[in-house]
Amino acid sequence: MENSFDNIVRETNRRLFRATSVKLSTQAVEVAQKVFDEESVKLRSVANGSVTITYQYLSQTFVDAAYANGNAIDLKPADGPLIKFSLPYVTGIC
């Protein structure tokens, strides 16, 4: 019997999304890309599936403005600049 994750991605139209951010550094991007490259292989065999990684730079100016204007995402000036990693996964694409 296949595990439940395999059943979900093979039998349904799913859109999964994860995101996180870390202090900006070359090492952070290199590690994220290396882990993505190694782990995404497991999902590439799913028919009609798509897994990607995207990066978004959150500048010091952005972090400062977020802090000054309500700070809805709880950023502090000392946190910036940041890099955000987004990991969308879609299956069941027609």
Beta-strand residue percentage: 25-35%
Total number of strands: 4
Order of helices and strands: HEHEEHE
pLDDT averaged residue by residue: 79
Q: What count of helical segments does DSSP give?
A: 3
Which term fits the overall shape? elongated
Rounded to an integer in angstroms, the radius of gyration calculated over CA atoms is 17 Å
Low-confidence stretches: none
Helical fraction: 25-40%
Describe this structure in words.
It is a single chain. By secondary structure, this protein is α+β, with helices and mostly antiparallel strands. It has one domain. 34% of the residues lie in helices and 30% in strands. It has three helices and four strands, in the order αβαββαβ.
What would a concise description of this structure say?
With 94 residues, the chain is α+β, with helices and mostly antiparallel strands. The chain is 34% helix and 30% strand. Strands 1, 2, 3 and 4 form a 4-stranded antiparallel β-sheet that branches.
Name some characteristics of this structure:
four-stranded antiparallel beta sheet, elongated, 94 residues, alpha+beta, single chain
Layout of helices and strands:
Layout: H1 4-11, E1 14-23, H2 26-40, E2 49-51, E3 54-58, H3 60-68, E4 82-91
Antiparallel strand pairs: 1-4, 2-4, 3-4
